[in-house]
Design goal:
Structural class of chain B: alpha+beta
Radius of gyration of chain B: 30 Å
Helix content of chain B: 25-40%
CATH class of the domain at 4-257 and 467-474 in chain A: Alpha Beta
Number of domains of chain B: 3
Number of strands of chain A: 11
Largest interface: A-B, 42 and 30 residues
Oligomer: heterodimer
């Protein structure tokens, strides 16, 4: 048989169901790929023995009615996995083994899949290039010297390099969509509250949302269906009926209205991004979609607003990593305060420290009103921009990122230029909306570029449908040579 | 507002330059009575082994999220209603950020800008009249764990059993003016919450603690003085001692021309003094902000209305009723409503016997006995029904008060009913006039000389005759009848 691992998840599921391949052989194929791809540094932890054991169990007693029958999956190392080390890409958790399973991963396992390994990510999901991880940077399979995006960089790299049939990431300001865009894969950030945050190492609670990263839209629908759902353990989880995204996938999008926001045409944006956007518009138009020019006037405030809200919440969320109960503890220091200082100084990397400092500052008395409170007000305005326009359009089309994957080390000394990577993705996190990044083309150097579809709250099905129709007519092909093995 | 009655309010501190008034406000931390913690399912029972009642949420493991315990919310609303306070249908949980080893999250979830309960009031009965104390607010918050510093010379141990338990912080207005008023205020809060079943008020177990804000000002001054906050005082006695010490300290400073520094102080119970803990400059910046893990708490008005309807009768109302329906005086009513169990006991006894006598005997012999034995009304060795039978026996003249005391003692020892005791011991009062007259005639004929003396004017001897009758009847002669018959016969 030809290489099963370069196929999409839905094709693999078909082959499992028709018994063309066993779960064990499938798992072995991925293990072989992973072992040959150490250079990419996509994995923090592998769970091969466990995966083979689960695969064997499946093959002995297969249940083909499940959504993910006998499928091995690697997941971002931000999801707590019972009995398997969960690091969040940080030294401060480098020895942390949870006694519990995150709701989202549990949902995946309950649908027939099992853990293959834990994927590298930016430390506490803070980064846009996977260069802040304590476990080293991840390499983009698209090119030797390129970053895979971040923070779900291990996830995007592993997916594009056929090290996992599909994966999940978390997206606080673009951490699923930007790496998807950089690797020519599909990434969806669902509506805030669609996937439970219980058991996911928190970065910024009001923005964090888990979502699927896949090779195509069908896979994305399957994964979303498997991982989402109400969870009473998360007070911000939305209580609604589960949807059959994969079954309801339709490619007829004729008559839909799609908004094109003028504010997403930013200064110094490479011409290629603009051309890609035009290409996307044309494809949709040809599919019978009505394109409508819209304005989201507060877009320019989204990035500064995000870089107040996210660090503020992070500064508080990360206070629990103090060396007292679990995780790394420095042996230096003569009293409690020194133990804290040394533990957190040695345990956290620079980017995390930077954001804790920013967050602590914006919440400090005397600055709270000027920064945090004002940011919360602007956040409402950004949300209102979307609400106003969603009375006129069904979805919004924008580029996913202002550039293709950049070189390792290119932006590490310039945090602001790094933060600018999230310019198109943060508004939807601030507004809690679903947004899909789908591969749409290549730039001159042959690097993948993505377009973003933003939907109304809980309107995942519609943006998946648009993406589905788009995918069929886009003729995008991600040609990755396996140069690393 | 102080309505002057017979006694006058007189708690002032005299300095060389005048009289000072003490201004006190309390932040009471009352542990919510609930089976589980404010944001987790861990049990709240006191007395478990260290770290036995700790969930992943309480110990702040990565990815753990708080979920509000509805019962705690209801308890806070009930308490608010009991304090005649405004219930806020919209309230917000905030994070109060600070580092400490027994604070696993690195923040305490509390309510800062939008508490669940707003302004209310509490009435105090003081010897100089009724006094109203304003409630500023009541909010819900998590308790921290406990650091144990004396188990090991080098290490501190942490017990997280208390971590995450729901507390109500009840903030008073600066309306209190003396340690006695503080005593009355805490007791009143405790009574109200125990009536409501929202806090057991057990100070030994730490269910009720307070931060005490103290300032002084010259009598007549309009502005408040600079206040100091004395942290975490866990008994009324210590609160009173701390206030007395702190007020005097402040007066001495002012008298010597110095200023009061606004600061947080600790009360050293061994040395009986307050000590500076941190100054205003060193005060923590808690960086409060709304907890993004929790949605704002929105209360349905119907829920509030339903809770209001289901509230028990509260002490102030009950006191009024006791005065009106049972003809008690204010003092008696006050004592009998001080604990719900006492008032229940009283009502049961009164219904089966006599209102006034029941009150007198409960507050007298019954309370004295309970006090002696270190018991409370709920575990009294004498049931309300038996006690009522005793009171009724007195009321009907079946036994005298003196015999009643004897019966009461036997009841405690034997657990028998008064009826049985009176019967088996033959303690029934002799109330048959004929029999009594016969007995008295015998006594008089035995003491002819005394009768003569009496008749010739030595009227003091009347008591002697009564004593003889009692002696001869074993104390069972009806005193009233005895008097009447004696008088009649001695006249003749």
């Amino acid at each position: 048989m030809s290489d099963i691992t370069n196929q999409s998840l839905n094709q693999i599921i078909k082959r499992i169901k028709t018994k063309e391949i066993s779960s064990t052989d499938l798992t072995k194929a991925y293990i072989k790929n992973i072992e040959g791809a150490k250079k990419l540094n996509a994995f923090v932890t592998t769970t091969f023995d466990y995966a083979l054991d689960k695969a064997k169990q499946f093959d002995n007693k297969p249940n083909f009615d499940q959504l993910l029958p006998g499928i091995p999956l690697a997941v971002k190392d931000l999801f707590c996995t019972e009995n398997f080390k969960t690091t969040a890409g940080s030294n401060i958790l480098n020895n942390f083994v949870p006694s519990y399973e995150s709701t989202v991963t549990k949902n995946l396992w309950d649908n027939g899949s099992f853990l293959l390994g834990k994927l590298n990510c930016d430390e506490f999901a803070m980064g846009s290039s996977n260069e802040t991880s304590y476990f080293g940077n991840v390499i983009n399979p698209v090119g030797d010297q390129l970053v895979p995006g971040g923070s779900s960089g291990g996830s995007s790299s592993a997916l594009a390099a056929d090290l996992t049939p599909a994966t999940i990431g978390t997206d606080t300001g673009g951490s699923i969509r930007q790496p998807a865009s950089f690797t020519g894969t599909v990434g969806l950030k669902p509506t805030y509250g669609l996937c439970s945050r219980w058991g996911i190492v928190a970065f910024a609670s009001s923005l964090d949302q888990a979502g699927p990263m896949t090779k195509d839209i069908t896979d994305c629908a399957i994964m979303l269906e498997a991982m989402s759902g109400f969870d009473e353990k998360d007070s911000t989880s939305i209580n609604k009926k589960k949807e059959n995204y994969s079954k309801n996938l339709k490619d007829n999008i004729k008559g839909l209205k799609i908004g094109i926001p003028k504010e997403y045409r930013v200064d110094n944006m490479p011409k290629e991004i603009d051309e890609l956007w035009e290409k996307g518009k044309k494809i949709l138009k040809d599919l019978g979609v009505e394109l409508i020019d819209i304005s989201l006037p507060h877009t320019k405030y989204a990035l500064p607003t995000y870089y107040i809200v996210a660090p503020a919440e992070a500064s508080s969320n990360l206070a629990r990593y103090d060396g007292v109960r679990y995780g790394f503890r420095s042996e230096k220091g003569k009293d409690l305060i020194e133990m804290y200082e040394n533990t957190r100084s040695e345990g956290f990397g620079d980017e995390v420290k930077r954001r804790i400092l920013i967050g602590t500052y914006v919440l400090s008395s005397g600055y709270y009103d000027a920064y945090y409170l004002k940011a919360q007000k602007v956040r409402q305005l950004i949300k209102r921009d979307f609400d106003d326009n969603f009375t006129k359009v069904d979805a919004i089309l924008t580029p996913s990122t202002p550039s293709s994957a950049f070189k390792i080390g290119e932006k590490t000394n310039d945090p602001v230029s790094m933060y600018l990577n999230d310019i198109f993705t943060v508004p939807t996190n601030l507004a809690g909306l679903p947004a899909l990044s789908l591969p749409a083309g290549l730039d001159k150097q042959g690097l993948p570029l993505g377009l973003q579809l933003i939907g109304k709250p809980l309107d995942e099905q519609k943006i998946l449908n648009i993406g589905y129709a788009f995918e069929k007519n886009c003729e995008f092909k991600n040609e990755i040579k396996k140069w690393w093995s | 507002m102080v309505v002057m009655k017979s006694e006058k309010f007189d708690y002032f501190i005299n300095g060389d330059n005048g009289k000072y008034e003490v201004v006190i406000g309390l932040e009471v931390h009352a542990q919510v009575l609930s089976n589980s913690k404010l944001f987790s399912g861990s049990p709240t029972k006191f007395g478990a082994e260290p770290n036995e009642h700790v969930s992943l949420i309480d110990s702040a493991f990565p990815g753990m999220l708080p979920v509000i315990n509805e019962e705690c919310v209801k308890q806070a609303v009930r308490t608010g209603l009991g304090l005649n306070a405004k219930i806020n249908n919209y309230s917000v949980f905030d994070r109060k950020n600070y580092f400490y080893a027994d604070l696993p999250q690195g923040y305490q979830i509390s309510q800062y800008k939008n508490p669940i309960v707003g302004e209310g009031k509490v009435l105090l009965d003081m010897p100089y009249g009724s006094k109203e104390v304003g409630i500023e607010r009541l909010h819900l918050e998590q308790d921290a764990g406990k650091s144990i510093h004396d188990m090991d010379p080098y290490n501190t141990y942490v017990d997280l059993n208390r971590s995450g338990i729901a507390l109500m912080e009840i903030v008073s207005k600066p309306d209190l003016r003396s340690p006695d008023e503080v005593n009355a205020y805490i007791k009143k809060l405790r009574t109200i919450m125990r009536y409501l079943g929202t806090c057991d008020g057990n100070m030994q177990e730490g269910s009720l603690r307070a931060d005490v804000n103290v300032s002084v000002r010259r009598v007549g001054d309009k502005e408040f003085g600079t206040r100091c906050e004395i942290k975490n005082v866990n008994s009324i006695k210590f609160m009173q001692m701390a206030i007395e010490y702190e007020a005097s300290r402040q007066v001495v400073l002012l008298e010597s021309g110095k200023e009061i520094d606004q600061e947080t102080r600790l009360f050293d119970t061994k040395k009986n003094e307050t000590r500076s803990m941190r100054s205003k400059e060193d005060a923590h910046d808690y960086r409060y902000f709304p907890d993004p893990d929790l949605l704002p708490l929105k209360l349905d008005q119907k829920l509030v209305d339903d809770l209001k309807k289901s509230l028990p009768e509260l002490p102030d109302k009950k006191k009024e009723r006791f005065i009106k329906d049972y003809g008690l005086n204010a003092y008696e009513a006050n004592v009998l409503v001080s604990e719900k169990e006492i008032s229940d006991y009283y009502e049961e006894v009164a219904k089966l016997s006599d209102n006034k006598l029941a009150a007198t005997w409960m507050m007298g012999d019954l309370f004295a006995m309970l006090n002696d034995k270190g018991l409370n009304i709920s575990n009294s060795p004498i049931s309300a029904v038996d006690f009522a039978e005793l009171v009724q026996a007195i009321k009907s003249g079946e036994i005298s008060g003196r015999i009643a005391k004897e019966v009461f003692e036997i009841m405690i020892e034997s657990g028998d009913s008064p009826k049985k005791i009176i019967e088996t011991k033959g303690l029934k009062q002799q109330s048959d006039p004929k029999e009594l007259e016969k007995m008295i005639n015998e006594i008089l004929s035995k003491n002819k000389d005394k009768v003569d003396q009496y008749k010739s004017g030595k009227e003091k001897l009347f008591g002697f005759f009564v004593g003889q009758v009692m002696k001869s009847s074993g104390g069972k002669a009806n005193p009233q009848l005895t008097n009447e018959i004696l008088k009649k016969l001695l006249k003749g």
